Amino acid sequence: MRRLFLLGACLAATLLAAPLAAQERVLNVFNWNDYIDPYMVQRFTRETGIRVRYDVFDSLETLEGRLSAGRTGYDIVVPTSEPTFSRLARAGAFRPLDRALLPNLRNLDPALQAQVAASDPENRFGALYLWGTIGLGLNAERIRALAPDAPMDSLALLMDPQHARRIARCGITMMDSAIDVIPTVLHYLGKDPNSTDAGDLREVERALLAIRPFIRNFSTGGAIEALAGGQSCLAFGYSGDMIQAGLRAREANRGVAVQYVAPREGAQLWFDLLAIPADAPNPEAAHAFINFLLQPDVMAAITNHVRYPNGVPASRALVAPEVADDPAVFPPEALRARFFTIGPVPQAAERARSRVWARFKAGR
Questions:
Q1: C-alpha radius of gyration, the chain, whole number
Q2: Is the link from the previous residue into 83 a cis peptide, with omega within 30 of 0?
Q3: What was the pLDDT predicted at 3?
Q4: With contact defined as beta carbons under 8 Å apart, do 63 and 2 qualify?
Q5: Domain membership flag for residue 1
Q6: Confidence band (pLDDT; 50, 70, 90) for 150?
Q7: Number of domains present in the structure of the chain
Q8: DSSP state of 84
Q9: Helix, strand, coil percent content, the chain, rounded in steps of 5
Q10: Bridge partners of residue 270, in order along the sequence
Q11: Which domain holds residue 309?
């Protein structure tokens, strides 16, 4: 959401209980936290005899750092199309997919694949897994009590200091990712989200520093628990994470209600891809896992669990009605028309953005 919750006791038990015969065949996965249905991992092991070792990350910076260092030992990684996937692909970090081993690639949505091709020409290195947007997770009741006139469907709820100042009393969580936040702020300011202009970046920095005093903490995966537990009433993060926070809040039954809002100004659209590192120790097992995941019933189970839409259209009929009919999970076309995607920016611009982010977090 793309998110640190380690898949739960179920997945751990699954991995420990893998049959002895499977010990010779191992798949090493590095995925976003809380980003798969653990029962599907259990099913994969049961059907193939391949044991799964599963590690998680909660930021693109963490993933890119590990892959750039090389010799990770991972067979499957799940980077976001921009900027991480495209940059790593250009650097030779991935093994080309062997389509002969992936008959279920035909299940992917051609229209979505065409969008992903902007980051992965000819869809050579990645298979579309899940997608979503970046927006606001909020506790509307608590926010209205503090700022009754604040716009609940706008990024101004966070980015306007007058609103953020009042909301700060009930807690604001910012996702800890310059890669995700800065393009959205550029778009909010009416700039190109891919801008490399120094003046545009200064405007972003001023806007972020203006709300810095009102941000309680920086967290990506941790925003789920902060919202669900009532420690925050507003978070900027991945759509599925915010939806999961709402589910956990309802399950806890402590009077906390959380909803996800894609800002009316337009939300950043992202795609997460299944990829095989160039030095993967078990590429055949990696292909088997990708092919397994791209089955409609498997992807439906994953969408039901994590509340992110997937790239397999035939899965939609198998998704639980309360998920399939939720516009926060499957946005209507009118809303999707306002979504935007980002492209790669030069390395010098990435360094400049990183410096802005460091100053923002430090508050100076």
A1: 20
A2: yes
A3: 43
A4: no
A5: no
A6: very high
A7: 2
A8: I
A9: 50, 15, 35
A10: 132
A11: 8-132+270-330
